Amino acid sequence: MWCQVLIVLAVAMPSAQANNSFFKNFGVFDIEPGHALDGHVIKSLPLFKADCMETCKETLSCFSINTYKDQHGNNLCDLNRSTKKQSPKSYSKRVGYDYSEPLKGEFCLKDDCPTKEALPDNWYKFNSSSYKYFINTTNWDGARKHCQELGGDLASFSSETENEFVFKTMLHDLNITNESNTSGLYPHLKFNGTDAGLSLIGAAQFETKDSKPAVSFNGTSYAEIPRFDLHSTDFTIAVHVFPRTASSAEQILLEGFTGSSSIFEIGIDSMNSSGISIATTNSVIKVYYKGIPNQKWTHIAFTWNYKTGVVVPHINGQRSSSTASTSPSPKSFRAMDPFYQIGKGLDGWMSNMVVVPRILTSQEIKDLFNGAISNITDTQPSILQGAWVGLNDKATEGIIQWSDGLPLTYKPNEELGNSEKKDCGLFIKINGDESAWKTEICQANATYVCKKNH
User: Fold this and answer.
1) Which domains occur in the chain, in start order?
2) Which PROSITE patterns does the UniProt entry name for this protein (predicted)?
3) Does a cis peptide bond (omega within 30 degrees of 0) precede residue 293?
């Protein structure tokens, strides 16, 4: 037996020496048995704990892990984009789980090992700089002013690793494609199979109902669309709906989540008394209109005033006498998951959904009811599908520079689309999984990324 042990040691020692790079990169993890971090999973993998730790170390956007076994005893690993320090409300006891995070946050690419850390209030540290993504939209100057008020500036990047850190940690799952929403319609879903970003889940399917292109739902199926801003702006949501059968259950037109928690629900109820109802339970805002008939098309629109919280429904183009106010603050509409859900609980059809980041007039809502969408004019600047960064040539046309004075030594793409009218830099996603920069009109609105140096 001793001979066997010596043989094993003799074989193992050279192997360990040959894998010094493994132990250099592996680092030390703090393990907390019986705990887990919920709602921040990048992806789940069938890995042992040691392999899970190594994978996290090799993943730029990973800051902690959950390890556990499934019902068949298989090892599973969750890579998390956050930590218990950054998201304490997501951290809880869970039987059978172990939560772990590296004591020294480090990502190594060859001999380049920048440090990283998930900080409170959704800031992320990379070496001596911290970054934060803001989902509310504003023009480039407004974004920069806010960043400066926080003691920083719009984001700048000096290396590929730094650029990819911000992209994969904060922007990868967001709808920041190389497109502009110049009409001001957040989405206009035609439900005819051509809507960009619309995914059907379960038995939901495209159909034609009474000559209308529509999506059919069976009560358990639903659809998903990329998230857009509802928590910091007035808005109008309008849709044609055809309940197949009468139901007193909630039929959701639009729902937003943070992790597994519902943040807001906007929907209808085809039975009970008519009129609008607003309920707040466990910080979930539910806005429902009761009295929608079944077995016929009804056009319903909700306008919502950000400052006053007043919600006004319109049925078939006519303003309802029933109004209500949301409570708590409109900021409670803010959902962090990258997708909204449509149609959950509905046994019937939906057609022609439009969301606009302002309160439409009564005439405009009548136009929507009658299908005249082209009559709607946008009174706000265009909404760009991207995130402002500090790139600009506002001082001298054609001379691109960073707003914080950092030398421009790195670009992910050479062609930025710069022109006399497009002077401000936008971070976008291309080819489904790659980051890029472009220039856009500075007066347009977009989300943005701030940077602070320590």
Assistant:
1) 29-102 (3.50.4.10), 119-175+385-453 (3.10.100.10), 188-378 (2.60.120.200)
2) C_TYPE_LECTIN_2
3) no
